[in-house]
Amino acid sequence: MLLQQVFWLTYLVYFCVFFLSAGGARVNVTVDDAEIDNGVSRITYSDPTTWKEGNGCTSCAAHPSTDNVFDKTWHDTSFPTNGTYGDLRNASLVFNGSAIYVYCIISHSLDNPFGNSDMTFYIDDEVVGNYALYPNGDPTYDFNVPVYTNDSISPGVHSFRLQGGSIGGQWSIVLLDYIVYT
Ligand SMILES: *[C@@H]1O[C@H](CO)[C@@H](O)[C@H](O)[C@H]1NC(C)=O
Ligand SMILES: *[C@@H]1O[C@H](CO)[C@@H](O)[C@H](O)[C@H]1NC(C)=O
Ligand SMILES: *[C@@H]1O[C@H](CO)[C@@H](O)[C@H](O)[C@H]1NC(C)=O
Ligand SMILES: *[C@@H]1O[C@H](CO)[C@@H](O)[C@H](O)[C@H]1NC(C)=O
């Protein structure tokens, strides 16, 4: 009787291990906005001079508390009202995976900073989503806000791009904290 139980237990453990490995263990990779890999920033910012490291930035209007910020860093940029194509703010990441989750800090302030959000998301240069939120005047920030999630991407290498601002759109801010892919 005891031997039979041991047999079934062993069988169950092998069964679980088999399924976990056959499922190609889905691993979450978190890429911080400031992550450097072999001397190169994992996330590419374009135009780089328009994106600032937000923590300690003296020229930035947004000064959220770092308590709830991943790795205490974020990238800050603003698209100007009536901006042109060259004014669109791009943050790009090449990843190998089947899901992506993009997290920003969201400001609701109407003034200093003007917390208007207007982002468009691309996978492999196709528009796949957007996030737009006009501030309600609340001076606080929201942290770890998933501005774009997609868990139905064909497994493999893809390029992701967050575009801040839109042609014909008004002034908008991006406070990018981190990106997770699976
Ligand atoms: C950002 O990407 C858009 C295409 O979505 C392009 O038109 C624009 O020139 C890019 N801007 C910069 C500064 O790289
Ligand atoms: C944006 O462009 C429109 C149309 O040309 C103009 O009426 C408006 O004043 C401009 N806004 C700003 C803030 O420059
Ligand atoms: C992408 O990840 C899969 C699963 O880990 C791996 O088999 C494949 O070789 C990777 N592709 C590239 C180009 O790194
Ligand atoms: C997820 O990405 C794929 C492209 O890989 C796209 O076809 C699909 O519409 C996206 N889904 C969502 C919910 O954004």
In terms of topology, how is this protein built?
Layout: H1 2-22, E1 29-32, E2 36-37, E3 40-41, E4 44-46, E5 52-53, E6 75-79, E7 89-97, E8 100-107, E9 117-123, E10 126-133, E11 141-150, E12 156-164, E13 172-181
Antiparallel strand pairs: 1-13, 2-3, 4-7, 5-6, 6-13, 7-12, 8-11, 8-13, 9-10, 9-12
One 2-acetamido-2-deoxy-beta-D-glucopyranose is lined by residues 123, 128-129, 150, 152-154.
3D architecture notes:
There is one protein chain. This protein is mainly beta and 182 residues long. The protein has one domain (27-181): Sandwich (Jelly Rolls), CATH 2.60.120. It is 12% helix and 43% strand. The strands form 3 sheets. Strands 1, 5, 6, 8, 11 and 13 form a 6-stranded antiparallel sheet that branches. A 5-stranded antiparallel sheet has the order 4-7-12-9-10, with no helix packed on it. The protein is globular and about 70 Å long. One 2-acetamido-2-deoxy-beta-D-glucopyranose binds next to loops.
CATH class: Mainly Beta
- How many strand elements? 13
> And the CATH topology?
Jelly Rolls
| CA-based gyration radius | 21 Å
Order of helices and strands: HEEEEEEEEEEEEE
User: CATH superfamily, called what?
Assistant: Galactose-binding domain-like
Keywords:
182 residues, six-stranded antiparallel beta sheet, Jelly Rolls, binds 2-acetamido-2-deoxy-beta-D-glucopyranose, globular, mainly beta
Short description:
By secondary structure, the chain is mainly beta.
